[in-house]
Amino acid sequence: MTCSTVFVAVIVSLPFLSIMATNPPSTCPCSDQSLCDPVTRKPAKEVFVFSVGGKNWKKYDWSKVTSIVMFNDYDAELMCYAHSKQVKVLLKGDFPVANLTDIKARENWLLDKLRKAADWHMDGINLDIEQPINDSSIQQKLLTDLVEQTTKAFHVQNPHSQVTYDVAWSPDCIDGRCYNYKAIADAVDFVFVMSYDEQSQIFGPCIGMANSPYNKTVKGVEKYLEMGIPANKLVLGVPWYGYNYPCLNVTEHDVCYIPKVPFRGANCSDAAGKQKDYSEINRLIQNSTTGRKWNDEYKAPYFNYKDSKQVYQVWYDDPQSLKLRYDYAESKKLLGVGMWHADALDYSDDKMAQKQTKEMWDALPHQSHGVTLE
């Protein structure tokens, strides 16, 4: 199979789409032309990686990666390198839910994604549609239709393609996202459970808390399983970042009261804080007034620090807390794990940074070598 014959886009007849689109093969940018062929390997376990741009990917631990999403700009060099490691490379796919009733808009969007996948020698698409939709609304059904149509079209264009969907940490209408999660999971190859930003809606006291508290993460995954979504269609996504909260007051038991910032029906939210990559957090902790502390309920680390104006509390995840979540995914026989995002680490030549970055990659499970062809 050569790159000149692989990506000829053929659109299957769909409820709203019944045209043929022929994409002439684009020039392969790889020095080895076979690297533009689709990846046919299907690993027994997934390590699903988001890359947000730049050249940090050159320092990823590629012995761990099975799929990578180019979340921002296309990088031909990354595609060629990932394919040399038999790693699937995916487009990012977003679509405004306000346009779901527009048949032509959906048709044009899907055609555009198929053409890009063909031109760029990509292995599929990761659907990241996170806008609010009311339960039992027409948008809910139309979103499911779009997901089903996208999966069918990509699989026709490239039988080895992979279509995935990013879902909230729980199916309980988180942030107003009342989707038909079971139907979406049935349609795609697997879903990536975004088990982070779990304080986007704080309905209790307005306090700083873990980004991915273990108890809430487990509860969310269990609800997906209870819906009848097979474990081998769930990838547990974890955060390689945390939140830096300004404290209005800190109690003797280290409870940090945060400003009230409403979000989608909740009086308080993690928007009161600022997202900080793991690399930034490791710099902040050097000025900590408490040192690294551990919350056993959330199974997550945190620390306090202060500047000339006030006290801050930082909640984050590190190799110890992440390993507990990876072990949980393994215990439930989930398809795998992944993170948002791989560029949150410090890939500089600083010795301490190199150690911290290696520890984060080392905590991930190794790829299973029991692989098959799709």
From TrEMBL:
It comes from the Eukaryota. The keyword Signal applies. It holds the Pfam family Glyco_hydro_18. Keywords: Glycosidase, Hydrolase, Signal. Residues 1-364 form the GH18 domain. InterPro entries: Chitinase_II/V-like_cat, Chitinase_insertion_sf, GH, GH18_Domain-Containing, Glyco_hydro18_cat, Glyco_hydro_18_chit_AS. Residues 1-21 form the signal peptide. Belongs to the glycosyl hydrolase 18 family. This is Di-N-acetylchitobiase-like. The gene is LOC100371430.
